[in-house]
Each structure stands twice: as C-alpha cells, then as structure tokens.
Records
---
Amino acid sequence: MKRTLLVVDDEYGIREFLYELFRDIYDVTLAADGKEAIELFEKNLFDVALIDLRMPEVSGIDVLAYIKDKNIETIPVVITADRDIDHAVEAMKMGAYDYITKPMDYKKLTVTIHNAIEKKGLEEKIDSLERHILPSSLFSNIISHSKEMRAVFNSMENVLNNDATVLIYGESGTGKELIARAIHFNGNRSDKPFIPVDCASIPESLIETELFGYEKGAFTGALKTTKGKFEQADGGTIFLDEISNISLDAQAKLLRVVQEREFLRIGGDKKILVDVRIISASNKDLKKMIQDGSFREDLYYRLNVIPIRLPALRERTEDIPLLIQHYLTIFNERYHKKVIFDNETLRILMDYGWPGNVRELENVLNRVILTAEKDVVLPNALPQEMRKAGASDDGAETPDSDISLDSLEKQHIRKLLMKYDFNISAVAEILGVTRKTLYSKMEKFDIKK
C-alpha cells in the first residue's frame, strides 16, 4: 500500500506538476487552498503534507496551526518564497519537518519528502513496538521487543523461583546487572538483599577480604570484625560481575562457597554458612580462559548451570527506536527540555554500530540532550565518530545531494529487498505495486540478489 501525500498549493500549475512528480511513488491528493486542506484533514489521514505558506484566506500557517491543534499525525513540509524565510522559521517552530524555497529545487524536494515519509514510518514503528510491550510484564523495565531478547526473557522466567546458579554472558554495556536485578527482584528472594560486586574494580589483594570479610586483628588496620559480601547477601542474591577478573587463588576459595555455601573469614577459623543465590557475569570467553589456564574449569561448570547470553545492541537493532524514545523521554524530563531529533540525526543513531551497546547509547543521548541549545537536534550535535560512520553508510545521501528521482527510487527498492531477503511479494505489497511492476523496476535498475 502506497504512502499518502497531500499537496496544498493555490497555483494550479504547481499542483499538477507535483502530482506528476510524485504519483508513481505515493498516493497523492491535491488541495487548491488551505480551507480545502482542512476539510480533507477532517475526513482523511495523510502521512505527509506539502503546504504552500502563502495562500489567500486560509494560509499555510493556519493549516499548520490546525494540524497542531488537532494533534493530527501528519508530517508537514512547507513551501515558501526566499523573501519569506521568517515565515518558514515560524512554520518549523509550529512543527513543520522542513521547508522548500521557491523556485523549488526538485531534487532536494524529492529527497525531503522521502525523508519525511521515512520519519513517519519510524514513528509508526515506535508506536507499534510500545503497544506490544505489556505493562504488566515481569521485565517491563527492560526496553526490548526483539526476538533475541525474548529468548533472554524466557531463560529468566525459568530461573525466577528456584536457586539455580546463573552465568550471564555479554559485551560491556549490554545490561548484565539489569538482568541480574530483574531475576532477583521478580523471584522468590525479592524481599532479601541483592549485593552486586564489581570484581574488575577490586584490587587482587583485596578480593578475598571483600567477598568473605575478616576477623578483628586479622591484619594491620582490622579494628573490628567485618562481614564480607557473601554474608551481606545471606538469604538473597550475590551478583559477581566480571567474574573473569578474580585470581586463581580467589577462584579456589570461591569454588568452595559455590559448592558448600560455607567459607572462613580472613583470620578466622569458624565456618560461616550462608543461604545465597549466586549470579555471575562475564564479558570474556571463559572457555578460552580455561584453555589459557587463567580460569578454573571446575568453577566454570559450577557457575554455568544456567547460561544466559545477552545480545549486543547491533544484534537487536529493532530495539534502537524504542531505546531512543525511552531515553529521550527520560532526559527531556530530567533537564526540562522538549528536544527532538531531525530525520538525518535519527538515521545516524539507527545505523550506528554502538560498540558500547546500550550504555553508550544512553550516555550519548544524555550528553546531546543536556547540551542541546535548540529543540531540534541536528547531526552536528552527535560525536564525530558517529557522523563519520553515518556518512559512509550506503544510501545515506542528505537533501543537498545531487541525486535523481530514479536513483532515489533505486536505493529505496534495493533497501527494501535487502531488508526482506528479496521476498518479492512482501516488497511489492509495501511499495503498493504488483509483482510484475516490481520485477520490471528491478530489471530497469539492474537490481539482482
């Protein structure tokens, strides 16, 4: 089914030209003035509206005001004369996506309308994903709709109400502690302590002291008996983050705790018994570390009873729009702003590889929104490495690119075919054409699998 475009212009020649320009790509409706446009909005839904600002009686600004007042989910693009740039700026403040000046650059116009349509599709995708996330879900604080994370949720549900030892694998920034907390606070130990231990940040000489505690006088400065993390977690859950960082000596003592749920404080001779669930996490390949001799095989098998692998953000890209919207809402509220991203900025955020995963995305959005001086964030506000990565992406031309309509259509068709693994029926339906027409266009543009 074709996307819908409303063209509003009081000049007959321009209306007819724009109709001929876009009719093969979109379902185009024409309005001869602002009044007719408002009447059409009362009965129809349009994805994008191309609106001339200078019209008699009901102006383009009036139409924008109507769209805003009625919360109509149409993306407006306005047409203005060079001498009316101030009106264009006013239109942008009222929610216009972009503006085109007369005399029109039709190459820029086609790309702008294409980008507005893409933005509309992204907004619809976010709305759809948010509707499918159940508010009553046990893990509703974890923002995801991807099948990769669904597998993680299934594994989590299987361990909620038992004491099975869990080992969470995942790159840095994927949210391993968030998963551990969700297991604890939705399980049968939720009213007991959750004690996280960042093994990577504790010096090797202090790891045993931190985990097992010490008796008064055990060493210089030990002025009183102090409980370690295992005792603090008694009855609840201890989360050993980056377990790969502890020494072989500490691993041997940890093995006994995992097996027997008992240990000795440093300097003590009395066994301490604990009832504790153990969840560990690692961003390293523990099997490879076993081969290298830096991790105990017996400890690995004790910890790896229930393995849960967290996918990297680049493996679940369909979650990126949700995460962007989630953090946009959080940081706008925190900093009392109303920041939005323009389409090109969104595209860069969507296409970036995110080597630091969700943590990197959160930090980038936090910084960008905090430092934003205007309500609309443009690409130059993003880190340089992201802009460079976005500039090198295939088919990422900006509206100023020297691009023909055929080239734009070719890119769009190729992108859809790649996305849907050359499923001709699916892509033809999305484009609103027959399979025969799609095959003809593939032949015309020399698009092959």
Note: The domain at 147-311 is CATH 3.40.50.300 (Rossmann fold).
---
Amino acid sequence: MTNLMGTILYGCGISLFASFGIQRVEAKKPNILFIMTDQQRYDMLSCTGNRYVNTPSLDRLAERGVRFERNYCANPVSMPSRFAMVTGRFAGEIGYTNNSTKPDTLRVLPVVRESSVGNLFRDAGYETIYSGYPGFYCGRTNIADYGFTQNGTDYYDGPANFAESFFAGYNPKEDKPFFLYLSFMNPHDICYGAGFDPRFPEKLRPHQIAATQKYIDLRKTLSEEEYRSQIPPVPANMEPNGVYAEMKEIGSGSRNWTEEQWDFYRWMYCRLVEDVEKQIGRILTALANSGLADNTVVVFTSDHGEMGQSHGLVFKSQLLEEATRTPLLIAGPGMQKGVVDSKNLTCGIDLVPTLCDLAGISIPKGLSGKSLKPVLTGQTDRIPRDYIIVESSFGYQINDGRYKYTAFTRGDKEETLMDISSDPGEISDKSADPIYVTVKTRLRNLLMKDLKRITQNTSVSQ
C-alpha cells in the first residue's frame, strides 16, 4: 500500500511538474511596439537636458526603461540604416551604402526574407503590421517580403491613427501577440530648407510645402522675445574644418545662409521634433489605455541624425556625431526603469538580436549586432563589445568609444582620426600626428578586418 501511494504521489508530482513546465513554455509572449522617426538627432529629447525641445511622452518612456546614450546608426542615410535595423545586417553586405529608388531585388529580397525581423516574428506566431513611411529598399512595392502587412502609408498622422484603432480592437485573450512597426517621416521635413530651399514652394509636393509653410506662419505669431528664447544656440563646432570643409565640394549639405536663416532652421527643427512627438504621445497613451503596456516591449529610435549647422552643414550622410548618433529608448516587462546607459556603444544592428532575445526567438546566425537584453534586464552593465562600425557612401568608420577612425572612399582625403573624448566637436584631425600612430594603426587594422567580412561579396567602393 505504501509503495502504491508512493507511486501515485510520484506520478502526480511528475504530472504537476510537467504541467508547470508546459505553463512556462506557453507563457504569453511579449508584444512589440517599434516606433521610428526620421532624422532625429540623439540630443533631441528634453530628457537629455535639451531645453529647446519639449518631449514629455518620450521622457516618460525613458523613465519606464533604459535610454542608451551612446547609440549610433549603422549608416547616416535612411535606407541603409533602416535595412540594418530590420535585418541586423549592414547594407554594405548587399552592396549598398546609400539610398536607392531602384535597388537590385535579387540582392535585397533574399536577405530580408531570411532575416527581416518581420519574418522572424511572423514565423514565431506574431501578427506583424507596418504603418507609415516604407523607407526600405524595395519597401514601397515589397513590404510583404520584409514580413509585414502594410496598413497605410500616411507617415504624418497615419501611424498614430492606426495604433489607436488597433489597440482599441485588440483582444489579448484571443488575438496573436503583435509586432507593430510604426514609421514617421518627421523631423525629416527640415530637409526642405525651412523655406530657403530653392524648390520652395513651386517645385515641392503639397505636404512638403505645408510642413514648411506652417512654421513660417507660426513664426509670424511670436514676439521677437518669444522666438529668440526658443532658438537653440549656434553649435560650438559650426566652422567647417579639414576633411569636412572638403565635403562641401562633393555635394554635401552645405548652405551659404545668413545668421537669421540659420536661426530659423535650428528653430524649425525643434518644432518638427515636437510635432512628431505629439503623434508618438497619442500612440503611447492608446497603449496605456488598452491595458497592454505591461506585456509590451516599446522601442523608440531614429534612422539617423541631423547636422544642424555643426561644421557648417545640414542634413545627414556625414560620419560625424550629429549625423550618426541617434536616440534609443527601450522599455518593457522585466526591464530596468529610469536607467541612462552611458557605458555601452550600441548600434542599429543590435535591434534584431535584442528583440529576438526578449521574445525568446532564436537569433539568426552571422549577425554583427549584440543583444542588449542583459543590460535591459540588469543582468550586467556591459555588453561584450570593443567597438562599432558605421558605414556611409563617403567611407567607413570604426569607433571604440574614445577614438573614431574613418577611411574615406570619396574625395581627396584618405583618413581621419578623432578623439571624441577630448574633442567632442571633432575639430582636430589626429591622423597625421605621430603621437597617435599606434592608435590609428590599431583601429585601421580592426576596421579593414571587419570590412573584409562585411563587403566580401561586393566592392568597398560602392
């Protein structure tokens, strides 16, 4: 009898253990809400101490999670940067380092079908939906190849309108876990020159005209004192120097503007950031009101930065801090709250492995990025990384956190070496200084080793 009872209890124990095991396996997967802006520089958040922009919704998101202070895009131009964020691979791996309206589908589509985050999550049982600006290679015609169902291409109000409707109708007990990728255009509309673009207004599209005209009109409603109080100061590194002065000769964002025009440009950029932040606020409010926030990982980032008069330049493309550093906020279940990570170098290529790791999805092999989950959850304060690589149509750069070595593929200048610890404005090129020869050689060798891997199937000159 005793043996029989023991056998029964033992069997019940196995059943209970198995039952608990099944519960662990079937634990509810976290939802993913991925929010992207276009051309938002790393310091364009009021939580960074910037008093010239007001971003309350993103500040609250930062309080709920981790803000990565030393985050860089993989390429300071939209399409290659977005390709890296959605696949975990450099666009240089498929032979592209710039935007392309007619990319080779035979290069692009096999890679995105294999490793796009949309396909990875869809195959893991997620509903994967994209709303807004389809700024990928082949994105306008082949978003399904990226693993997403397209829901609208309005990239101003559209993503917020869709999110509010989606969250209101979502049933967590019946519906699949979701991966929503919401992509906004702004503050990219600063590219239309704050009214100083020679195409304005006759040669621009209606929405491009409206974006600029709105702020020309708003400026007229402000007193001179109000307006001046809202203008960020002139950057300390506004004067062109060295290789970046030469960049003007190869079609970069140089402008011969008056002081008044520059002031209006910097002011308008801040207002565009606030405009898109209000749309993001709508999304985060709808998420909170739906009761889904506790099981949703929220990611906010941008594809690249904006020069904003630094080095006398506007727009993007440059391998400089203002163009390559972007905001990265991540919050969600089981993560640290209110943490500002200033120790780790992070990059757009880290997002695929991070999101897969957070969702319990196998990370594709061969990716260059690192999972940030151990930092997000407080398991460690360091990820195993000594440097990051950033590529562009001008060249390739390695950044070890203090020194940035750049090998150029365009123009007369071959290389630069910047010490961003002592020279954060990147004014003084150390590449010809014999004191730095050991540093330069070390970084150049590491860069060439990585480039051989990244560009093994294509030409670096592309």
Note: The radius of gyration is 24 Å.
